[in-house]
Specification:
Oligomer: single chain
Number of strands: 2
Distance between the termini: 49 Å
CATH architecture: Up-down Bundle
Radius of gyration: 22 Å
Largest sheet: 2 strands, antiparallel
Strand content: under 5%
CATH topology: Amino acid/polyamine transporter I
Order of helices and strands: HHHHHHHHHHHEEHHHHHHHHHH
Number of domains: 1
Number of helices: 21
Strand order of the largest sheet: 1-2
Length: about 550
């Protein structure tokens, strides 16, 4: 199979899905461009800020396109490229894009509130509390994993003390992005330039930051970067969204889109062969295709984290309801295309039908830089830029999920659909600074054990969150007399997948406990999180399904 053919086929299918299925859903649910959005009616200058479609798309896409669409397909390719491609294409359209769009639509129609608020309003207060607890635990998992990934990507020294120039250049450029984003945020917020002007300014800043990074690499060890990353995330989680998070995501979105476009050009020019088997079996290396494939390939097909961004931050910035479809549905399909490119990348480097050695980001960077080198571009520079893009994916997801975790913690104590006022202790805990500190403290402690030790739970927790979000949106659609049957099959399938995956994870951890090689710091944390996530998921699903079965 030729990689270019696979990529083009996926691209055509995604375009048809957007203009066919996506627009049909918008008409079916009654998207109304004349209704004022929460960004206008509840504007507060911190979270609720009406913004242009391109700016909100930049925030949405940069936030959701984390390490998942690269890591997942490359790891899952052990089952063969056909199962991965089918899951990315079908899952991206009928699972992921529908979830992202429905979550954003439901949030915009409910004061820009999160899925947790929707659960309280349409399912019940207990369900909301359980869901928010689930979201907070999930946010801690993501913060820990992605903070460690970013720190490792920025690490300027190898294990033997040798300097890693590519990582050091990525670190410098990323720091430049952060400071430049603040200036860009004040410029866009104060001057309100048109889309072409703000885009041109962003591109100039992007090029200048990359140039400085290439010529001024910053060599700092991983441990130091971990402190810096958490300090930055704290600032990003509490400052007004227009001052840092939004412009940084907007700036990074240009880098990410350019990287995807360049990767597509490289694939089309080189036409690499897929050197992996089409299908290797239902059991590979002790891993079962069901449910492992569906939790390993998360962000490229469906990701519960997307629903948190769609309903937690992006929905508070939507200027007009007509912008929701391209921001959410369209953003998800572009991420699915990235997952297909990652699959082509690993397929092109396979030797003798076996996966290449190295971590997924390294495999991806090697393949894409190789494609573009054939076009005459300098391989080392391209490798650094691709590594920078991968790092940007992780960092933008990190600061967004920290904000989502903070919002979920605050909602747990104060936000009530019944309008009741919180007590003194609840008000203290719901303070945005207190909520952020508590979220990051637990994330930091978990990050110390390394993301490899907690990554196995990320996919399961992420997909279970997606199933619960679909459930909440399905109940919302039913209670508001709208058709939501297209959410039911994805919801039940993902519930089955994730509960099975969590049970398998818990069983393996308990088996290690009996074998004597159980690590308290790593395995113990995983086991606790697996049990808590499973129990919370079951309780929320039980409440939601009961409401879904009731007469509308």
């Amino acid at each position: 199979m030729n990689g270019a053919t696979l990529m083009l086929a996926a691209l055509v299918i995604f375009i048809l899905a957007y203009y066919g299925y996506g627009r049909w859903l918008a008409r079916l649910w009654g998207v109304d461009e004349n209704l004022p959005t929460p960004a206008h009616t509840l504007r507060d200058g911190v979270d609720y800020v009406p913004s242009r479609r391109s700016v909100v798309f930049g925030h949405q896409f940069a936030s959701i396109a984390g390490a998942g669409p690269i890591n997942g397909p490359i790891i899952a390719a052990m089952f063969g490229w056909v199962p991965v491609a089918l899951w990315v294409i079908l899952g991206g359209i009928f699972f992921g894009a529908v979830q992202d769009f429905s979550a954003m639509y439901a949030s915009v129609r409910n004061k820009g509130k999160t899925i947790g608020y929707l659960i309280e309003l349409y399912i019940g207060k207990l369900g909301k509390q359980l869901f928010l607890a689930f979201v907070w635990l999930f946010s801690i998992l993501v913060v820990a994993a992605f903070a460690d990934i970013v720190a490792v990507t920025f690490n300027g020294f190898a294990a033997d003390g040798a300097m890693i120039t590519a990582n050091a250049s990525v670190a410098t450029t990323s720091i430049m992005f952060i400071f430049a984003a603040v200036g860009l945020g004040f410029y866009i917020h104060g001057r309100q330039p048109d889309g072409y002007t703000s885009g041109a300014v962003a591109i100039v800043i992007l090029i200048a930051s990359i140039a400085i990074g290439l010529y001024c690499p910053l060599y700092v060890p991983r441990t130091t970067w971990l402190y810096v990353v958490f300090a930055y995330v704290f600032v990003a989680a509490v400052t007004p969204i227009w001052a840092l998070l939004q412009p940084r995501d907007y700036l990074n979105s240009f880098l990410l889109v350019f990287m995807i476009a360049a990767a597509c050009a490289g694939v089309l020019y080189t036409r690499p062969e897929m050197r992996l088997p089409a299908f290797t079996g239902f059991v590979v290396n002790g891993q079962y295709l069901f449910p492992i494939l569906f939790v390993t390939v998360a962000c490229g097909a469906i990701s519960g984290f997307h629903s948190l961004v769609s309903s937690g931050t992006a929905s508070k910035q939507v200027e007009n309801e007509r912008d929701m479809l391209p921001i959410s549905f369209g953003g998800m399909l572009i991420e699915a295309l990235l997952a297909i490119i990652a699959l082509v990348a690993v397929g092109s480097l396979a030797l003798g039908g076996k996966l290449p050695a190295g971590s997924p980001p390294i495999i991806f960077a090697q393949a894409i830089s190789g494609f573009l080198a054939d076009l005459g571009l300098p391989r080392e520079v391209i490798y650094t830029l691709v590594t920078l893009s991968v790092s940007a994916f992780a960092l933008t997801s990190l600061d967004s999920v920290a904000r989502v975790g903070r919002l979920a913690f605050q909602e747990f104590f104060t936000d009530s659909a019944e309008g009741t006022k919180p007590g003194t202790l609840s008000s203290f805990l719901a303070n945005r600074y207190v909520a952020t500190v508590l979220t990051l403290i637990f994330g930091y402690l978990l990050a110390l054990v390394g993301y490899q030790n907690i990554w196995p739970l990320f996919g399961s927790a992420n997909q279970l969150l997606g199933a619960l979000s679909l459930l909440a949106c399905a109940v919302f659609l039913k209670r508001t007399k709208r058709q939501g049957w297209m959410l039911h099959a994805p919801m039940f399938i993902m519930l089955a997948v994730t509960f099975c995956a969590l049970l398998i994870s818990a069983y393996k951890l308990l088996a290690k406990l009996g074998g004597g090689d159980f690590g308290l710091a790593s395995d113990g944390l995983q086991l606790v999180f697996a049990i808590l996530l499973f129990c919370l998921g079951v309780l929320v699903a039980k409440s939601g399904i009961a409401k879904l079965r009731e007469a509308a």
